[in-house]
Amino acid sequence: MGFPGVDWSIFRVEGFLLAGIGAGFVADLARPREWRTPAGGCLLGGVAAALVAAFVWPVPDTSLWEGVFVVDGLARYFKILFLCALGIVTLASLRDMRDRAWAGEYYFCLGSSGAGMILLAGANELVSLFVALELTSLPLYVMAALRRGEPKSQEAGLKYLLVGAFSTAVFLFGASFVYAIGGSTAIRDLSVAGPLHAAEPLLLIGLVFMLAAMGFKVAAVPFHTWAPDVYEGGPTPMVAFASVASKAAGFVILIRLLLGPFRVLQEDWTLLVSTMAAGTLIIGSFLAIPQTNIKRLLAYSSIAQAGYLLIGFVPGTPRGVSAVLLFLAIYVFTNLGAFLSVIVVSRSTGSDEIAAFTGLSRRSPLVALAMMLSLLSLAGIPPLGGFVGKLYLFAAAMEFPSRFLWLVVLGVLLSIVSLYYYLLVIRRMYIEESPDAPPVDPGPAAGIALFLCIVGILALGIAPQYLLDLAMGVAQGWQ
Amino acid sequence: MFSAIASWATIAAALGMLGWYAAVQLTGETVYWLSDIMALTATASVVIMAVPGRFERFIRWIAAAFSFGALVLSVCIAVMFQRGEGLSTFQFAETSPWIPGLGASWALGVDGIGVAMELLTGIIIFCGVLASWRVEHRPREFFALLLLLVTGVFGVFAAQDLFLFFLFYELAVLPMYLLIGIWGTGRKEYSAMKLTLYLLMGSALMLVGFLALYFGTETYGAPGAHDLTFSLEAMRRTVYPADVQKFYFPFLFIGFGILAGFWPLHTWSPDGHASAPTAVSMLHAGVLMKLGAFGIIRVGVELCPEGARLWLPYCAVFTLVNITYGAFSAMSQVDLKYVIAYSSVSHMGIVILGIATLNDAGLNGAVLQMFSHGIMTGLFFALVGFTYEKTHTRMIAEYGGLGARMPVLATFFTIAGLASLGLPGLSGFVAELMVFLGAWQMNRIMCAIAAVGIVVTAAYVLRVLQKCFWGPLTNPHYENVPDAGPVEILCLSILAFVLVAVGMLPGWLVSIINSGVAPVLGRVAGGG
Q1: ipTM score of the complex?
Q2: CA B248 from chain center: how many Å?
């Protein structure tokens, strides 16, 4: 190979995942037509192997090719997070995709997007960051449009593609400014050597562009408009994956850039990001209220969650970073729990309307419980994980009450607004009854996935110490 | 088949854990009384949820047994509570680390105020379960949620850690949404949503205050304390600067004040209480509103005495509106349950007025009024519930002379009414007298205005009694209406007994309460 001295075993996590994707791809092509696709099982195996590898055989701190790819605490943390999300989504997809003609393509795209995120977690240079970001996003665009023959899905795919391509262009544009001033694309060189000067106005332009591009990824206002349409139109498992993993991916980049080389501009971006956070919270919380489609409601709710994440991110302290990391991990279980319930219900009823949840507590206690716990966790109710996450985010901002008190007060008040629309769904499930509606059966795979989410939500709420230490260690070690 | 196995396994696991927990304590050195109460009610909640459908009729017996256990334990801690000079303020204390990374610990302990509230909760939950004897619709979920909720209530009164406090607070509020939404009457979904949003809005505001106090433990903490902590004990040792106290006190006061029914943020309460099923009204008006007043004392006054001294005199003016407006509104209601609901607003005004006086008589009176009103309003709501079950209406105009057909209910109604208007010999009198003594020391005009509320209370209570129960039977529908049954009489008797006992012999309870109030007042006076 052309890279002497590179120990390829540090790519073991990526390797296992790629093996799973590859095996699925080949098996899908080679199978007899009447067989169901084995791609889902292969992907699941790859994810499981990668997870085991990440836990049992962790990669030591490494920097490859002068910092193009790094393995550090942040990368390890996010790789595990992405793998968990990918695993749960795959598990939940098995039944939903069983009799779809495009299941093979779906699993390939899902796996590729996950692989892109895992690369992204370790990318520490503007170009590799860009490549990883594209590998993450392109399969998502394809997946959004996979429900062939459904206009909403086509609309979702096209919209996602156009907006995503635009945001990519904006990112590149911003990156070119940074390169012009910093003279390097490696984040390490930009920050360690310190060639970036706060006084440079072009740098500020570069910052604004890159921030806008990340705003698209995490669906922050005013770059959020794609989210509700894509969520509504795309296949639900894909939406579930995009809603958690894409958001996490956006925050990896934000952490690496804004708290890295752009630290010199902290005064400027604090204002930008806190304004963005406030707008995101307000829009996300209020626009969810009139929604009648559960996926659109969850889209706005996930916009609001991005706002909470930004509150924790704004102070830029290790506590803030660890709060973001903790919240994202909790968010994986919480939001996936909600989306998995939607997958199960819409499969049984064929409807994505909130009305399809009527009387769910009688029709399937497990799914209703998972949905209720997920929604309450999203609203930040103790003793569920979402509460610890939100509390920690608010705490990170309350460390500087003179600057961020307004944001915290806004956040806590809007979390009550969001509770309102979550309660509307809970009311459907628990208070209203619909004797005629068919029972809902999640099936074994989705049942296990739901159970994992419930356990995750409860465990992270009651005993978050392990994860807290982990996140704090990552945040402190990384800076 | 599978679900039956799962049910029995869950029940066995829950009971097994409870037994193991009991065994550990009995063989060990200490008994964790406060955790024990919560362990009982939480186990009951799990067991009831897991009871297989065939045994649904036993659910109320399980609930009664476990809540009776909670009552016995809460009486035990009240009897064993030691008071006197030199004894520690917070007793039955237990601490174990929980989430050290956040500075949260499982810290429990009660002072005189907490003990009184635990006792109140124990009485009300047992009577509440008795009052729910006739719940036929989805009884499993009903009792499970009720006991889950009361676990939260017991927890708040004992929590010595703000993280734990907040957790229990939410646990006490949120099941209310389903309890009112599913088993309520009238505009139940509207009321349930309104109540939940109002109360959680309050909790959101107080969370901001909590976080400020939390960061203060590091900045202003005692020398050597450099870790962030939610521990109330550490916060009491922290000297918060006056401007911090003054800035954050309104967050805490309004946050808790919403739950305490503070005017003008009380509007959730009449709707919520009127729509809720009987036991939930009892628990909510009887105990949960006290939780707000308790929070004002425990967190607001005790940790921010400077803020309390600055803001509470203004708040006192609002409480006058509470007292008089609540009483006048009660006077004009046509629905019996709304009368009681508005009377709670009025009586809670007296509690907050007592707190706002920040003097010995006022604060002691406020806590005693919390206890007394809890029992009294519990009795009222139980009576309204029983009467409704038999007559199927709550409209005062449709009653009339019911006393002739249901003498037992009428008698208890009279006792509750007389306690409500402050008849000497019943608990309400002692409490209100003390609050008014305190208010007189603070400001005589305020005291006089508040006294108007008492007069109006007497007017509406007597009016209701007269229209509903006394006089000749006016509505022929109720010719053969039954009187209270044995379970109902047991429930009513317990509550009425407590009302009379505290009214006749207030000394024991007052001395317990005072042992908790004195240190709080010491902090207010010593605050500079």
Answers
A1: 0.85
A2: 25
